[in-house]
Design a protein that fits this description.
The protein has 389 residues and is mainly α. It folds into 2 domains: 245 residues, Up-down Bundle (Rhomboid-like fold); 121 residues, Tetratricopeptide repeat domain (Serine Threonine Protein Phosphatase 5, Tetratricopeptide repeat), CATH 1.25.40. 64% of the residues lie in helices and 6% in strands. A 3-stranded antiparallel β-sheet has the order 1-2-3. Helix 7 crosses helix 11, helix 16 packs antiparallel against helix 17 and helix 17 packs parallel to helix 19. InterPro entries: Peptidase_S54_rhomboid_dom, Rhomboid-like_sf, Rhomboid_protease_S54, TPR-like_helical_dom_sf. One of its GO terms (molecular function) is serine-type endopeptidase activity. It is a multi-pass membrane protein. One of its GO terms (cellular component) is membrane.
């Protein structure tokens, strides 16, 4: 058995929405779950009667005996958890923030903490929050397809988090996950595994197999919700990628007007004199995007690489980043990713970002030489970098 502990590399910046979701779940647990779990239900609460009717009073079991085993939190779950047999749209959301106990909460938040920040970085904060909630709702509805008229409430953030894992699975195939491996008492150690291996194991072994051959009613685990969330995350990531590619195709390369500038030499005569320093300063002074796009991409890369050679790393990074953002469908974009990674590598706080740029260069490489250089840079980072959680 293994437990994920951290992933590498991590994106630049902070995953504020991921942190906010973790904080919200913990806050609700401390504010509602714990106090209500230790409290007796109100005898005048109409939900109590509904609970007793749902449980059913048969044989020698008295209402008093059932009441003594019920907590106020049981009624809270009945009211705000999702019950397939009593469809309430509000509970599609409220159920995502309720948990059955500390271990249930801790497991979910661990997975969200490890994998959420990368997906948030890829989607952006607002879209990430929408995707999180969408996956949560979709996972609950997927669960309901197989639950019939069940009155047993479904609670927990695991369906939404499974959606995050589905996005991660598709978008970060080269990432690695540090896991605690234990086969007590023989093996207890930490190892690095492929992210796809870890998440594939989660989907297939931890959820699909039990879903097909075990019962959620006896295990207490909503395997269907986990599978539904993961598949929704995969679909969202795939559609997002296709939309992005389609947008680039429709946008196309900017058309050059008749007599437009076609090379940096025509904009900056310094190039013709072999004055690359002057050419670099000239290019950096082009504030208009359309004017920059008239410059041949090969000339832009010459400028970026010249700055790298001269140790002007922030300026080189600026050039390569602009190339990447403005020329997404350029055939030389793999060189821009490689150059950006090299520029970041010279700044310690950008080590993680450099790793991502080298991965992109490797994925987009149009020559074996560039791919080999990207792999070499990745190995150097992995050798000297301390992984983050």
């Amino acid at each position: 058995m293994f437990i994920p502990l951290s992933d590498t590399p991590n994106p630049p910046g902070r995953g504020y929405i991921t942190w906010a979701l973790i904080a919200a779940n913990i806050f609700i647990y401390l504010l509602l779950t714990l106090p209500a779990s230790m409290s007796r239900p109100d005898l005048h609460d109409p939900v109590l009667l509904e609970y007793l009717q749902m449980v059913g009073l048969y044989g020698k079991v008295s209402a008093r005996q059932v009441y003594n085993s019920v907590s106020a939190y049981d009624l809270l779950i009945l009211k705000y958890g999702f019950r397939p047999g009593v469809f309430d749209p509000l509970t599609l959301l409220t159920s995502l923030f309720l948990h059955g106990g500390f271990m249930h909460l801790a497991g979910n938040m661990l997975f969200l903490f490890i994998f959420g920040d990368n997906v948030e970085f890829r989607l952006g904060r607002f879209r990430y929050l929408l995707v999180y909630l969408l996956c949560g709702v979709a996972s609950t509805l997927f669960f309901a397809l197989f639950a019939g008229d069940s009155q047993v409430p479904l609670i927990g953030a695991s369906g939404a988090i499974s959606g995050v894992l589905g996005c991660y699975f598709l978008w970060y195939p080269r990432n690695r996950v540090r896991c605690f491996l234990f086969l007590f008492p023989f093996i207890m150690t930490s190892i690095y595994l492929s992210a796809r291996l870890v998440l594939g194991f989660y989907l297939l072994i931890d959820n699909l197999v039990p879903f097909l051959f075990a019962s959620s009613a006896t295990s207490g685990v909503a395997y269907g919700a986990h599978i539904g969330g993961f598949l929704t995350g995969l679909a969202v990531a795939g559609i997002a990628d296709q939309y992005y590619r389609l947008r680039l195709q429709l946008k196309g390369k900017p058309a050059k007007a008749e007599g437009s500038l076609a090379s940096l030499q025509q904009i900056c005569p310094a190039v013709g004199r072999g004055d690359l320093a002057g050419a670099a300063d000239c290019y950096l002074g082009l504030l208009d995007r359309d004017e920059r796009l008239q410059v041949d991409s090969a000339d832009v890369l010459v400028v970026g690489n010249f700055m790298l050679e001269k140790g002007r790393f922030p300026e080189a990074l600026h050039v390569f980043r602009r190339f990447i953002s403005e020329r997404q469908n350029d055939e030389r974009i793999d060189q821009a990713y490689l150059g950006a990674g090299k520029a970041m590598l010279q700044q310690p706080r950008y080590q993680t970002s450099a790793y991502h740029y080298f991965l992109s260069a490797l994925d987009l490489a149009r020559s074996e030489q560039l791919a080999a250089e990207a792999r070499m840079q990745l190995r150097l980072i992995e050798k000297h970098r301390t992984p983050e959680g």
